[in-house]
Specification:
The chain is of the alpha/beta class. It has two domains: 165 residues, Rossmann fold (3-Layer(aba) Sandwich), CATH 3.40.50.10490; 109 residues, Glucose-6-phosphate isomerase like protein, domain 1 (Rossmann fold). It contains ten helices and nine strands. The strands form two sheets. A five-stranded parallel β-sheet has the order 2-1-3-4-5, with helices on both faces. Helix 2 packs across helix 6. The longest helix is centred in the C-terminal third of the chain and has 19 residues.
């Protein structure tokens, strides 16, 4: 895809806003740092606001040998939690989260400022400098994940290289993806594969299924066919050659994503790189990635408040 042909649409503008947001976010959010030092955090969210922030946080904590992070939807909040409940929502109006937390102390990390989640929170932070334009949430997801990750890092004496993430985001180039009919996204345990599958539906109208990297060679070849693409976005280098070799007879295309080694925030760079690919696939399929046919910008939001 020629850079000149890149979609000049709301989705592209939202992806570009991610660089601005990451560079401008304040230092680790002190209220959340203090909360993480005192007890475990429970991230309460739906959809994208849970997938990436929880996936990244869990992966980081495991790499540090630490505990103290969990997540659930608004309808699964335990009756008693020994630490802080942290609500995440792009709009700040997600019905399940609001109803699940009603009457319970919580922190709020939202895309947009204001809204009932922030108004009822003990402490609140918003990450977007302005509203996103497209149906698919991009910058808000990145910002929410970064707020959680940096607070946990500060609480556990770790350091994340945000400057390397900013540089990596600026260096993403326009891809030229092959034409595909179905997408199988092979990723790690950080929520990125699941989030890119969701965005593939929303932006490109492309059927997509996330596959855990350890399962890519456990029968996937039985359902692949010509016109499919297996998109390996994460995983050990030693696994990539076997995936290419084993899946070649199916006629499916194997695409491998590579990003610079930037440490613990690499999943966010993979996510942003994936957005660029999805935008290109959308244009290739004759779609505006910011204007899907049926999908809505909001989830199940509280109305009239």
């Amino acid at each position: 895809m020629n850079p000149a042909a890149a979609p000049s649409c709301g989705f592209a503008a939202d992806c570009a806003m991610t660089r601005e947001l990451v560079a401008a976010l304040p230092a680790p959010w002190a209220p959340l740092v203090d909360a993480a030092k005192k007890g475990p955090l429970l991230l309460v969210a739906e959809g994208s606001s849970r997938l990436v922030p929880l996936g990244l946080a869990t992966r980081l904590m495991r790499s540090w040998g630490a505990t103290g992070i969990a997540g659930c939807s608004g309808r699964q909040i335990p009756a008693h939690w020994p630490g802080t409940l942290v609500a995440l929502s792009n709009s700040g109006r997600t019905r399940e989260v609001i109803e699940g937390l009603r009457g319970r102390p919580h922190f709020a990390i939202t895309g947009l400022a204001g809204g009932p989640l922030a108004h009822s929170a003990s402490a609140a932070i918003s990450v977007l400098p302005r509203p996103e334009q497209a149906v698919a949430a991009t910058a808000s997801v990145m910002g929410q994940a970064l707020v959680v990750a940096e607070a946990l890092a500060a609480a556990h004496g770790q350091r994340l290289d945000r400057a390397a993430l900013v540089a990596g985001l600026a260096a993403i180039t326009e891809p030229t993806p092959p034409a595909v009919e179905r997408l199988w996204i092979v990723g790690g345990d950080d929520g990125v594969a699941e989030e890119l599958a969701l965005k593939a539906w929303e932006t490109a109208g492309l059927p997509a299924t996330p596959v855990a990297s350890g399962l890519a060679l456990h029968g996937l070849e039985e359902v692949l066919r010509p016109g499919d693409a297996v998109w390996v976005i994460d995983g050990d280098d030693a696994d990539r050659a076997p995936i290419r070799i084993r899946l070649a007879p199916t006629g499916a295309t194997v695409i491998e994503m590579t990003v610079p080694a930037i440490g613990g925030l690499a999943p966010l760079l993979r996510l942003a790189t994936g957005w660029r690919w999805l935008a290109a696939w959308a244009v290739q399929r004759g779609r505006d990635p910011a204007k899907p046919t049926r999908a809505r910008k909001v989830g199940n939001d509280i109305a009239g408040v």
